[in-house]
Amino acid sequence: MTQQQHRPDATPPARVLSVNLGRAEPNPWKNAETTGFGKRPSADRVHVRAPGPKDGGLGSGLVGDHVGDRQNHGGDLQAVYAYGAEDLRRWAERLGRELPPGAFGENLTTEGVDLADCRLGERWRVGSTELVVTVPRMPCSTFRGWLGVRGWLRLFTQDGRPGTYLSVAVAGDLGAGDDIELLHRPDHGVSVADAFRAMTTDRDGAAALAPAGAHLAPGLRELVRAALAGTGREDRLF
């Protein structure tokens, strides 16, 4: 991420390897008629909507990307999903199968970014867009069904590298090959991996997310508030 990379010695530099869009397909694994999980790389640059009156009532996200279950996916806090190419390659080796960009349902397949170490609330510039790290991805039944791997939800959760959702702060266009520039990184120290553990395997440790304060999404905020209840430290969220 230019001069403020998550790993200053990272090779290759932080960039978008692929921008991936999903089309509507049947979803037999969830109480939803369709899914856009099967994402494929776009050969063209893609416009990204920001929330507001100019989103055409569709909400923020990538133009042309289908979201089938809008109750649990999409929305302004989950407008864009990023997953690392390095992690895709690692899973491909572990599972013994090809996992091309988009295989995990990600909009942005990134390279040179340690997404698990990203801080909640950090802000990126990608192409002419600006994106903000919000919450980790939670594995769901569609993810499990699409991959067809026995015990997949457990395996993915134990791995602890879920990728991250991003909100759209500034609308614009992005495409494969764009640099990922880190514009701002909060100093609270709470990472995507920290949040994922608090949401899955270590709910008792949710209080450790409190320093992220205003950068916590509502669901995370409630987890932290519950963990802090009765400790006299509830004001750490503000």
TrEMBL record:
InterPro entries: Benzoxazolinone_Detox_Enz, MoCF_Sase_C, Pyrv_Knase-like_insert_dom_sf
PROSITE patterns, alphabetized: MOSC
Pfam family, one: MOSC
Alphabetized GO MF terms: catalytic activity; molybdenum ion binding; pyridoxal phosphate binding
Residue numbers spanned by region Disordered: 1-46
Domain MOSC intervals: 44-183
UniProt xrefs under Gene3D superfamilies: PK beta-barrel domain-like
PANTHER family hit by this protein: PROTEIN YIIM (PTHR30212)
Name by which UniProt lists this protein: MOSC domain-containing protein YiiM
Source organism (scientific name): Auraticoccus monumenti
